Amino acid sequence: MAEDELDIDLDDLTRRMEGALGALRTEFASLRTGRASASMLEPVMVDAYGSPTPINQVGTVNVPESRMVTINVWDKALVGKVEKAIRESGLGINPQLNGTIIMLPIPELNEERRTQLTKVAAQYAEHARVAIRNVRRDGMDQIKKAKSKGMSEDDQKLWEGEVQELTDAHIAKVDAALESKQGEIMQV
User: Fold this and answer.
1) 3-state DSSP call for residue 122?
2) CATH of residue 123
3) Which of 17, 137, 159, 184 would give a disulfide with 170, using CB separation of 3.0 to 4.6 Å?
4) Nearest-angstrom CA–CA distance, 171 and 165
5) Which residues pair with 73 in a beta bridge?
6) Rounded to 10 degrees, what is the CA torsion of 75, 96, 93, 129?
7) Over the stretch 12-47, which tens digit does the pLDDT of each residue have?
8) Average per-residue pLDDT in the chain?
9) CA distance 102 to 105
10) Which residues pair with 47 in a beta bridge?
11) Per the record, GO CC terms (predicted)?
12) In terms of domains, do 101 and 115 share one?
């Protein structure tokens, strides 16, 4: 039987697992490591014009130096809302106003905060692992359906091995990304 008749699409499974890795990288980028980064503001939403809006759509985000992020808010009426969104975001940063420019000095991370951030990174990695395992389960379900449509047992074992290999490779990538991020966070 041809592969397309049996509905086992390794490319789709790979794409979905890569999507989980991409989401993990985005979440990791939002974790601050003591260095200023514009990406740390990506999860922060501002209540602008009646709907939640990403900060980069209400102003220009810059990193003029290693411990400072600035946001040049385009609409003066939104400066207070942007400041409030940053304070309530849980980033642990105290915004300072200078006209329409909001300055975010990034404080040094103490040991306790670094440990907390490594735990948050581990949670993000576990969410990615769960997402990858869910994709694996979908792949295994496809194989079971194909088996009921007449796939041989040898082919079933072969496909299950392929899906498991794909899963193991992506879980290893998650583990490597987590180790790298935790090392980055703990670096003084």
Assistant:
1) helix
2) 1.10.132.20
3) 17
4) 10
5) 59
6) 20
7) 999 999 999 999 988 887 776 667 777 778 878 898
8) 87
9) 10
10) 52
11) cytosol
12) no
88: its two tokens: 């309530």
The count of domains in the chain is 2
58 and 97 assigned to the same domain: yes
Asked if 78 and 46 count as a contact pair (C-beta separation under 8 A), the reply is: yes
Quick check: 131 and 20 in contact, CB under 8 A? yes
Could you list the beta-strand ranges (E) of 8-163: 45-48, 51-54, 59-65, 68-73, 96-98, 101-105
Q: What is the CA radius of gyration of the chain?
A: 22
What pTM, to 2 d.p., does this model score? 0.68
User: Residue 108: how many CB atoms within 10 A of its CB?
Assistant: 9
Residues 92 and 123 in one domain: no
Q: Residue 70: which of 79, 125, 138 has the closest Cα?
A: 79
Cα–Cα distance measured from residue 186 to residue 159, given in angstroms and rounded to the nearest whole number: 41
Give the number of residues written for the chain.
188
Q: How far apart are CA 184 and CA 188, in angstroms?
A: 9
Joined tokens for residue 142: 């496809």
- Name the band, by pLDDT with cuts 50, 70 and 90, for residue 188: low
Asked if residue 79 lies in contact with residue 102, where contact means CB atoms within 8 angstroms, the answer is yes
